[in-house]
Amino acid sequence: MDEGKALRILLIIGGGIAAYKSCELIRLIRRNGGEVTCVLTDGGAQFVTPMTLAALSENSVHTTLWDLKNEVEMGHIQLSREADLIVVCPATANMLAKMAAGIADDLATTLLLATDKPVMAVPAMNVRMWGHAATQANVATLRDAGVMVLQPDEGTMACGEYGAGRLPEPDAIWAAIARWTGSGAGSAGEAAPKEEQGGLGGLIASLIPRGTKTRAAAQDALLADKGSARISPDDLGPRATATGFGDAFDGAPLAGRHVLVTAGPTHEPIDPVRYIANRSSGKQGFAIAAAAAAAGARVTLVAGPVTLDTPPGVTRIDVQTAREMLAAVRTALPADVAVMAAAVADWRTRDAMDQKLKKRSSAPPALMLEENPDILATLGTSDARPGLLIGFAAETQDVVENARGKRTRKRADWIVANDVSGGIGQSVMGGASNTIHLVTQSGVENWPEMPKEEVAVKLVERIAGALENIDD
Ligand code: CTP
Known about the structure:
- This protein is α/β, with parallel strands linked by helices.
- The chain has 2 domains: 8-207, Rossmann fold (3-Layer(aba) Sandwich); 238-471, Rossmann fold (3-Layer(aba) Sandwich).
- The chain has helices spanning 20-31, 50-57, 68-72, 75-81, 93-101, 107-114, 127-131, 133-144, 170-181, 200-207, 213-226, 283-294, 322-332, 375-380, 399-409, 452-471; strands at 8-13, 35-40, 61-62, 85-91, 119-123, 148-149, 153-156, 162-166, 258-263, 268-271, 274-276, 298-303, 314-318, 337-340, 347-349, 369-371, 388-395, 414-419, 433-434, 436-440, 443-446, 450-451.
- The relative contact order is 0.09.
- The longest helix has 20 residues, at 452-471.
- The strands form 6 sheets. The protein has an 8-stranded mixed sheet with strand order 13-12-9-14-17-18-20-21, with helices on both faces. The chain has a 6-stranded parallel sheet with strand order 3-2-1-4-5-6, with helices on both faces.
- Bound molecules: cytidine-5'-triphosphate.
- Residues 262, 322, 340, 342-344, 346, 372, 374-376, 391-394, 406 line the site of cytidine-5'-triphosphate (CTP).
């Protein structure tokens, strides 16, 4: 990508129900300063029309290899030459299979075979199709060939089944594009921060295998170079000493580790003045972030809307919605440990209004809800899954039983379970202390009631011990 120039994306839209989400992706790319040219497959055209894509991208939409005028000018080669990046979204099982086998039987697959540009594929399909050995082998072939294949989300599918295979949300896809190209990641609606490093930084980082120390170091350097409002170099060190946790730890048991923490509630907008929320104060997650920093870790705290101060030495990323939280979590990876303490809203309104809803004399408005992505479960099945993945469980009944179920369902290593029953104002949510049941593979530990800071120190000690064992 030429420095200072808009990122040019050639977007190939495959034939799946998730094709409609590519419309939102176009809007996000453009809002962040990029340009989009669309190639629509025959299958994709069953779900979205060329007219819609042309209107959103303000560019012609290409549908066929047999457009004589374009072929005289070698249109399919030219199309990919003019792009910085090709994004296939949604990438169906069929499309991935053709890409892996080198089949070129329409415009999309022909230009994918002919291109020398970086390619990202965003899969979306039924859970069994995704899990099928053939699809997984195709994904492995493509990754070996340098194609960035994103991990699909887990959730309820259009076909009614549950599992991995859902198209990630457009803001998460945009965050992945921005991260890969070094265009400056922004969550939905943010203007892209000015990128001083150009496109190479992100691409180079993506070539270093995940989880290696080199990659972590390279990413640190990249983050430090970005200088955006989200992560400032100052936040990256030196590690804080005045954390409020004094000398809670012997030495720095988490030195050299990256700990990712989510905290607080999320707010899901109904209209510009109203939102869906919950009573989480963020205190427990903030205490864990502070304790991890005191133990010497580099800490990224992804915080929902709360009024708490950022603990010293902690890099904080503020988000509002669940989808923004997921995008920020993905951007913060890789991490050695993730502690998902946030009380993420399970649902959002299907159509948040641009204008304030007005009272009508007839009937109150009906809010249509749809499910938010499950951040913990998404991490649980992600290629970038941290070595130690810790979830929370807020329960009002059958605390341990429900927590056990969540641990396996979301593929977490540990669940920190607590009882949030109690009248309004008397719940653990918002309070200063907590009674924890730590559910691990080997059993359940019942901790006595203690201040949230003490819970944080105890948990960080356990984390440090577990990481040593993982290394051994
Ligand atoms: N979580 C998440 N994304 C969601 C919902 C929850 O990452 N959309 C995470 C929370 O951060 C926590 C764990 O999942 O670590 C369990 O959250 P909890 O609210 O207890 O469980 P839910 O999955 O929402 O299930 P339910 O509300 O039915 O108890």
